[in-house]
Task: inverse folding
């Protein structure tokens, strides 16, 4: 059958609906550059082992360079009848070089070719994502002006204990650091070359897989051709890591959306990163944060899509795997768009210091510090907990704060309490009293901030 690279055994043309149903050119064209890179390495190897001549390899490499430029300039028309980017490039090569072009696919199948391309593509994306995550970390760490500010810390969204405001920024910095490490880990594990696994069994031809692996920057060739042909673990792993980034971004967005409400009143976002309402003139909405939260659904859905896609597949390549790219690309694109916007939002948001300070002594943020004061005076922890619970109840009945109680009132409940109790009461004192490693106390936070500033300045 004319036109199809695989048409030799067919006597009827492919049904047009089938061509439209099976094509992937509409979503895999972005692999053009890595496809060319992989093919050029393959051609160099074929020449090295004597399967094609050196001149033929040179011709192939030059023609592939030209074809890539034409694709990038939109000069090559895509057609569903050529299925995917790999067949488009190969057919353009054959149109140019004739029989020489027909030699490129020697000792290779689209199965190892596709996986090689995806790995090359996601490797670059991982490197880019790492930079974006680093920029976001830098944005949080740049907010060192907030070091003199105290924020309430919450559990169950109820006021819990006070912390230095920068403790919040470093909490996110830590989360994004683990995300970076997960990506680096994923990169390390995926960096084994599929090229030369051919369809599923390897090849009878004397190819040199070590050479192409090295040429393309892989650690080594992957060892089992059957495994390679079916393996998409690396995409599931990558998109799972992206899902965690999405979850981190989404909960950060949720927190700041709450902080921007009149009810919280902690934060004001810059005008440039908010939008208005078509009917309510007063509105300034945190749409970007809401969409960061909303778009996380796409990323999490993509990881589910990959898991479900893979779970029932026998060895080795099955066409189902073509759908992998839709999920992976959606996740990568979405995370990138969120990470590109997030740093500006972080840098430009203003904490409403007066509003925060005016209510920082609400909610008994100092209750735990008071309990620990008792522990340091030999009161057993559970007893101290009970005593402070009673004192809080007393304050609630009197509608006052712990620091408003008189020494007599304190001593009636706990004779161990002295006049120095007032040194740990109030949010400011309670934060200052925090001293453990990793705590939200001022010294601890200043120390951690310095570590992060040095760490992020390094590269
Ligand atoms: N477009 C396909 C994919 O992305 C290419 C592989 C087709 N291989 C095959 N043996 N039909 O997975």
Result:
């Amino acid at each position: 059958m004319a036109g199809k690279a695989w048409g030799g055994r067919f006597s009827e043309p492919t049904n047009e609906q089938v061509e439209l149903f099976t094509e992937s050119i509409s979503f895999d064209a972005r692999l053009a550059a890595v496809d060319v890179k992989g093919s050029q390495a393959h051609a160099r190897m074929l020449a090295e082992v004597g399967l094609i001549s050196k001149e033929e390899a040179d011709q192939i490499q030059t023609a592939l360079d030209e074809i890539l430029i034409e694709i990038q300039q939109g000069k090559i028309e895509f057609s569903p009848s050529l299925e995917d980017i790999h067949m488009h490039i190969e057919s353009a090569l054959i149109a140019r070089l004739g029989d020489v072009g027909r030699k490129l696919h020697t000792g290779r199948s689209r199965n190892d070719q596709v996986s090689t391309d995806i790995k090359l593509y996601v490797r670059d994306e991982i490197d880019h994502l790492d930079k974006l995550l680093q920029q976001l970390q830098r944005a949080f760490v740049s907010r060192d002006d907030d070091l003199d500010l105290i924020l309430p810390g919450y559990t169950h969204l109820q006021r819990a204990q006070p912390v230095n405001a920068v403790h919040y920024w470093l909490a996110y910095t830590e989360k994004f650091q683990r995300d970076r490490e997960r990506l680096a880990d994923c990169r390390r594990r995926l960096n084994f070359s599929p090229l030369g696994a051919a369809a599923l069994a390897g090849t009878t031809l004397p190819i040199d897989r070590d050479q192409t692996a090295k040429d393309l920057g892989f650690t080594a060739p992957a060892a089992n051709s059957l495994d390679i042909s079916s393996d998409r673990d690396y995409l599931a792993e990558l998109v799972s890591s992206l899902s965690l980034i999405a979850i981190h971004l989404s909960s950060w967005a949720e927190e700041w959306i709450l902080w921007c409400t009149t009810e919280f009143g902690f934060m004001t976002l810059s005008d440039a990163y908010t939008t208005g309402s078509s009917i309510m003139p007063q509105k300034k909405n945190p749409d970007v944060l809401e969409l960061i939260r909303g778009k996380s659904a796409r990323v999490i859905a993509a990881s589910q899509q990959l898991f479900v896609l893979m779970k029932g597949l026998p060895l080795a390549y099955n066409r189902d795997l073509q759908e992998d790219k839709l999920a992976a690309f959606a996740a990568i694109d979405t995370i990138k768009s969120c990470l590109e916007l997030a740093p500006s939002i972080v840098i430009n948001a203003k904490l409403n210091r007066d509003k925060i300070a005016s209510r920082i002594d609400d909610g008994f943020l100092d209750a735990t510090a008071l309990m620990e004061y008792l522990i340091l005076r030999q009161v057993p922890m559970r007893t101290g907990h009970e005593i402070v619970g009673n004192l809080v109840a007393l304050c609630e009945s009197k509608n006052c704060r712990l620091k408003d109680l008189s020494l007599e009132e304190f001593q009636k409940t706990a004779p161990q309490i002295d006049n120095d109790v007032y040194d740990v009461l109030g949010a400011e004192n309670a934060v200052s009293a925090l001293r453990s490693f990793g705590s939200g106390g001022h010294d601890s936070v200043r120390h951690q901030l310095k570590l992060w500033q040095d760490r992020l300045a390094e590269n």
The chain has a mean pLDDT of 97. The chain is about 60% helix and 5% strand. The longest helix spans residues 110-141.
